[in-house]
Amino acid sequence: LQDSIHIKEVSLDFMDTPLHFHNAYEMVWMQESSGHRIVGDNIEKFTAGDLVIMGPDLPHVWYNEKEYYLKDNRQQVKAIVTYFRPDWLTGAFINSAELTKLRELLVKLKRGIKITGRAKEKITRQLEKLPASTSLKRIIRVMSILNILSVSEEYECLASSGYINSYSQKDVEKIDKVYQYVMTHYTGKIMLEDAANIANMTPTSFCKYFKNRTQKTFSNFVNEIRIGYACQMLCEDGISISEICYRAGFNNLTNFNRNFKLFTKTSPTDFRNSLRL
Questions:
Q1: Domain of 194?
Q2: Residue 162 domain-assigned (yes or no)
Q3: Do both 151 and 180 map to the same domain?
Q4: Residues 221, 133 within the same domain
Q5: Quick check: 17 and 61 in contact, CB under 8 A?
Q6: What pLDDT is stored for residue 7 in this prediction?
Q7: pLDDT single digits (tens) 78-126
Q8: Which residues neighbour 253 within 8 Å (Cβ) at sequence distance 6 or greater?
Q9: What DSSP designation does 208 have?
Q10: What's the pLDDT score for residue 88?
């Protein structure tokens, strides 16, 4: 990153940037798009309006829903992505007593944060003006965003507190191919042998490699993606829980219910009922 702040206005048919990490802070405001977002060891569904900030060297990737990749797709991806260098958030400036809350925020940014509520409204107003701002005004706006967050509690950390980036650049390319395989096939049958072949490994070696790099077992990763999709369908009326189970890629209700409780801490029925309150 050559400039202190670099802004990219994204307009695409689908997200095409692979899993990666870099030595810069990154702020992603997804104006139009939906799919899955992976930040460190965190996996979540995202929709239009999603706002995330990540610290340096934190692996991340966005994958769209399957329909975005179809030839007759009419949906679009629109986003404003802002990168800013970490070196002007160091030294005597950042260590001053007045910036204690900012220092605490920067520690949390190492895990990535998702911003919500009024804080998101205030920040997106700043982001709308960023592309047309001058160099100095851009720095002022980014500092204003950090100030909003430093005094707010309207965000949640994404990667787990113990997450450590254990990827090399070669690992990133390999894991991204496996991620793409899962994102394409999670509603159907996913074979461990196929994923291992993509990584050019035996199934046993692949399982160890995947858990070491992602801090998740391969089966848990797949099931977490499937449960995220199930949650999306539970928000819709007219689809039975049994049908959702099979649409999400599970082959029996017992396995579906067990995994749903594991990842959401509630049952599919209680989850659906909570949406109607």
A1: 169-275
A2: no
A3: no
A4: no
A5: yes
A6: 95
A7: 999 999 988 877 666 677 777 889 889 999 999 999 999 999 999 999 9
A8: 241, 242, 245
A9: H
A10: 73
Q: List the structure tokens of 37.
A: 């977002």
Element (H, E) at 23: none
Q: What is the pLDDT of residue 180?
A: 95
Other Cβ atoms less than 10 A from the Cβ of 139: the count is 15
d(CA 244, CA 184): 18
CA nearest 38: which of 8, 59, 53?
A: 59
pLDDT of residue 86: 82
Residues in the chain: 277
Supply the pLDDT for residue 270. Answer: 94
- Same domain for 9 and 146: yes
Angle at 227 between CA 11 and CA 164, to 5 degrees: 70
- Predicted pLDDT of residue 156: 97
**Exposure string over 47-66, b if 16+ CB within 10 A, otherwise e:** eeebbbbbbbebbbbbbbbe
Cβ proximity of 38 and 61 under 8 Å: yes
Q: Is the C-alpha dihedral spanning 72, 73, 74, 77 positive or negative?
A: negative
Q: Which residues of the chain have pLDDT under 70?
A: 1-2, 90-93, 277
Q: pTM of the full predicted structure?
A: 0.88
Instruction: Please state, as a whole number, how many other Cβ atoms lie within 10 Å of the Cβ of residue 32.
Output: 14
User: Does residue 45 lie within any of the structural domains?
Assistant: yes
Q: What is the pLDDT of residue 194?
A: 97
Q: Sheet holding 155-157: strands in order across?
A: 5-12, 77-84, 25-32, 51-54, 113-115, 155-157
- Exposed e or buried b for every residue in 193-228, given b needs 16+ CB within 10 A? eebbebbebeeeebbebbeebbbeebebbbbbbbbb
Tokens read off for 184? 């394409």
Residue 163 included in any domain: no
Residue 246 sits in a domain of what CATH number?
1.10.10.60
The total number of structural domains that make up the chain: 2
